[in-house]
Amino acid sequence: MSDQAGGLPRLQLDELLAELQVRIDAVRGTRDRVHDLLEAVLSVGGELDLAQVLRRIVESAVLLVDAEYGALGVIEGTGLSQFLTSGISAEQAQAIGPLPSGHGILGELIRHPEPLRLTEISDHPASYGFPPHHPPMHSFLGVPIRVRDEVFGNIYLTEKRGGAEFDGEDETVLRTLAVAAGVAIENARLYKAARARQEWLEANAQIVSDLLSGAEEGSVLRGLVAHASRILQADLGVIALPVGDSTDLQVIIAVGVDAEDHSGLVLPSQGSFMGAALAAGGSISTSEIRKDPRVTVGPPRWKGLGPVVAVPMLGEDRARGVLLLGRAEQALPFTEDEIAPLAAFAGQAALAMELAERRRAAEQVALLEDRDRIARDLHDLAIQRLFATGMTLQSSLRFIEHPEANERVLRAVDDLDETIKIIRSTIFGLRAKEADRKRLSLRARTVAAAESAARTLGFTPSLRMEGLIDTDVPQAVAEDVVAVLEEALSNAARHAQASAVEVSLTVSAGRLVLTVTDNGVGLPEQGRRSGLRNLAERAEQRGGGMTATAREEGGTRLMWRVPLPPAQLP
Q1: What pTM was computed for the model?
Q2: Which helix (H) or strand (E) holds 328?
Q3: What is the spatial order of strands in the sheet that 305-314 belongs to?
Q4: Angle at 514 between CA 509 and CA 518, to 5 degrees
Q5: What does the pLDDT look like over 376-421, one tens digit per residue?
């Protein structure tokens, strides 16, 4: 009896000791788990790079709740823009195919951002199975990550090791980690934003320095694309400008991957992504350029690109072009925070183009002023002296009795006359730069020639034009017309002593007629007429002719006429 009575307390004591050991182990396990949780929080919070923060979160979550697989999905709109996994090898991920976009159980947490714990995934109404080659998954635990009042994303865990189920303690631990993750993500975002602002400020300072130093437009624009590509981690950056008066856009600068395939590319505004940015008047973006419905034209040159952003380069009066940045396929989309500074930076490109345009205009004005000064000096000094010398020689002829000497002096006078013609031709060339003149219409050039002659005539000739002058007259004929008009007005200024000159240019019935009439002294009966012969030869080469006749009321009428090519007829 005594042994039995004494054995019972020993049994109860053993049970009590065993229960105490279990509780001690539980406390130790809880302590270790809390310690692991604190280490995970410190590890996650110690990172400032957002990509590393997200990677640390999913890895820590898998370790804390002893799950075989884990993932972190970043929410954008109603889907997932990023999906980081743990426990899936690269070979498995490639066999599974594209990453999920936010349907099924994953979408359930997006639609209802509350913790979700499941014993069997397939039993949930939102589940519709896994893609081929996907590892089997049964138990599930999901918790949202909140950054302030925004749901940033979700942590997904599956397959608790040992075949057990996720319990309430696992959920509590994961929710605690999610709170710490939200703080870490916010800190990483703030750090990234501060660093980006600093980089934008440095890039802007560099562009302004280049502009003030007078760097070439192309160099400034290329530097601008390089800065934007570096800051936004873009794989391709391009600038496209309008083509003349058309609505097409041509890529003039391309930097980055496959830049040679994009350089020089011409696309219409309608149906192109850059054209859509112009039409929108602000920045537009897409997560996958090759599937964007706004891109309907052009060759398949977007191969290898995924996220793309385009922003118009807005100047004072109009959009100067478009800046486009693209990242490789599967890369992260451009966020609103990233895109926000891009509009102001693109404005720097427009400013660079405006400054270059004004610089060219100022240089052109300076050049024209210099040409005008040279022309004025030639006219007022050189020609007047040559006139005086020629008149002196002519007045000296009556004192020369030797026939041969008389003939030589006459030739010298003719040479002076020819020299004056050359100088006058040079003056006209200086006052109207040839490259600029060719860009003007024939009507505009005719008006310019008449206005230029006013300096030597002392008055502005009257001008009358009729017909489809700018439409039916070929460029080569237009060049002859301007040359003939300048020569005729020059002759009127030099020889006619006229007080009025009338110019008529008409195009009718496939024929061009230029008439120059003055009220001067008329044609001399004897004298050199090489200039008129040149005009006649120009007409004959075009299949036409020229006449110069004296008017009954005094003065001269020069009529220069040529047929127009049949292809130019209305």
Answers
A1: 0.51
A2: strand 319-328
A3: 266-268, 248-256, 236-242, 319-328, 305-314, 284-286
A4: 140
A5: 666 666 766 777 777 777 777 777 777 787 778 777 777 777 777 7
